[in-house]
Design brief:
The chain contains 3 helices and 9 strands; from the N terminus they run βαβαβββαββββ. It is α+β, with helices and mostly antiparallel strands and 161 residues long. The chain has one domain: Mannose-Binding Protein A, subunit A (Mannose-Binding Protein A, Chain A). The strands form 4 sheets. A 3-stranded antiparallel β-sheet has the order 1-9-2. β3 and β4 form a beta hairpin.
Length: 161
């Protein structure tokens, strides 16, 4: 599991060529992994139109922080507890620097979708989305302060099997 080194505005489809919504976020994760030479399938931790991020994931646990042996989530059900350490390593296994915001569109692992840039289809300043932060394990999926969609943030990417 990793957080993208790149940042994206809230309209994922405009940055993922032909994909829309959470599927576009998945494509951005796949692209990040591929460019870094990481094998496997990845899915973004992003709410869908009617699906929580946790429900979008296959149970491919345990999830380990990229470039380490640190287990972040031992089981799918442990997603509700939060990670064991901050999710602060990118697709190459390096600690990220700069922006710490991460798009999620969710206030919890299995909670109905919250604000998410109108289904991740707009980067207008009048819309917002829930963001988490890479610098704090307890606020990994929601800082409690939404971010406007024309700003950029990272994505969490979970390996899927």
């Amino acid at each position: 599991m990793f957080v993208t080194d790149s940042t994206f505005h809230g309209n994922f489809g405009a940055q993922a060529g032909g994909f829309l919504g959470a599927a576009a976020a998945d494509k951005l994760c796949a692209n990040a992994a591929s460019f870094a030479g990481v094998q496997g399938a990845f899915k973004a931790w992003a709410s869908g139109a009617s699906e929580s991020p946790g429900n979008r994931l296959n149970d491919s646990s345990p999830w380990v922080l990229m470039g380490t042996s640190q287990v972040l989530f031992a089981t799918k059900s442990s997603l509700t507890l939060g990670p064991t350490v901050a999710i602060n390593r990118n697709e190459r296994g390096f600690v990220v620097s700069g922006s710490t915001a991460v798009w999620t569109g969710a206030t919890g692992a299995f909670v109905a979708p919250a604000a998410n840039c109108t289904g991740w289809t707009t980067n207008q300043s009048g819309t917002s989305a829930v963001v988490g932060t890479v610098s704090n394990g307890t606020m990994w999926t929601s800082t409690g302060t939404p971010q406007v969609c024309n700003l950029t943030a990272r994505l969490y990417c979970f390996e899927q099997q």
